[in-house]
Amino acid sequence: MIGQALFNAPMLLGGQAARADISCASCHSNGRRNPHFHLAGVSAEPGTADVSSSFFSLARANGRFDPKPIPDLAFPKKISRDRTSGDLERFLRGLIVEEFSGREPSQAAISALAAYVRSIGDCGAVLEQPRRLADQVSLVRQSVVSAELLARSGDSETSAIAVAGARNQLGLINERYADPSLSRERKLLLAASRALQPAAQSSAPDPAELRHWRIKFDSHLLPILELAESRSLYSELHVRHWISENGTTKSQ
Ligand code: HEC
């Protein structure tokens, strides 16, 4: 659980990636591959990325523009997933610190991330699932529970990364509640995100406060969001209506 939360947390990568809200999951959606990932200066065709680009870090910038297809992590290629060799752990540390100029991750963070990567399985084709509110909410909850566990174990720095990940997920929900009639929902989302700000910036997030936030989110905000989901962009019907109202004919 902690591994998946970190996989979705941009702050783990630090630097430019974090500022652009890019997490591992932006490129490897659900641990597989995102065929649509495209970032100017980093990608050639959609679904490719140059991870040794100076956009992310100067340490490993090789001065060449050589985007590679983003691999599907369900199928190990260059990096062995063997538990005893520690290859995956070393690769992940290097990826975070050198390719993305993130801060030195804790041992617990690397172990959790490696466990998540090892657990990614091939469950059929890389489907383009429309994200539902429930998926995004479960990532919010998972991030906050992970932050609680990490804070309790004394790993404050990784805990703050997970809290920032939860705030990022709330922002993604906010983007989908775009309809003018949903201003109350947007206000509540913003307030919930603000309530997490002290923990995201704290050098020692308080697990009891995080737990309190999570209980309040589940009992107060979630029912309101669920009631309005049909008017949000999580609803396929609403997306079609929204496109026709806004006169956009651009296909996905
Ligand atoms: C900007 C897009 C991008 C981001 C963000 C990203 N990756 Fe990757 N990842 C790639 C690309 C492209 C490769 C292939 C690089 C190559 O072939 O040299 C790769 C390779 C890998 C591999 C090796 C797969 C194999 O067996 O060969 C693993 C494991 C991996 N990434 C995990 C992660 C994790 C964990 C994170 C977050 C800490 C992450 N990636 C963030 C694009 C990305």
3D architecture notes:
The chain is mostly helical and 252 residues long. The chain has two domains: 2-119, no CATH class; 133-238, no CATH class. 53% of the residues lie in helices and 2% in strands. The chain has ten helices and two strands; from the N terminus they run αααββααααααα. It has helices at residues 2-7, 15-19, 24-27, 87-99, 107-119, 133-152, 156-176, 183-201, 207-228, 236-245, and strands at residues 48-49, 68-69. Helix 6 (133-152) packs antiparallel against helix 9 (207-228). The chain is globular, with a radius of gyration of 19 Å. The site of heme C has 21 residues, from helix 3, helix 4 and helix 5.
List all distinct small molecules, including ions and cofactors, that are bound in this structure. Answer: heme C
Number of helices: 10
Indicate the mean pLDDT.
Answer: 90
Radius of gyration: 19 Å
Spatial ordering of strands, largest sheet: 1-2
Which helices and strands, and how do they pair?
Elements lengths: L1 H6 L7 H5 L4 H4 L20 E2 L18 E2 L17 H13 L7 H13 L13 H20 L3 H21 L6 H19 L5 H22 L7 H10 L7
Antiparallel strand pairs: 1-2
Helix pairs in contact: 4-5, 6-7, 6-9, 7-8, 8-9
The site of heme C has 21 residues, from helix 3, helix 4 and helix 5.
What keyword list fits this structure?
mainly alpha, 2 domains, 10 helices, 2 strands, binds heme C
Gist of the model:
With 252 residues, this protein is mainly alpha-helical. Helices cover 53% and strands 2% of the residues. The chain has a two-stranded antiparallel ribbon with strand order 1-2.
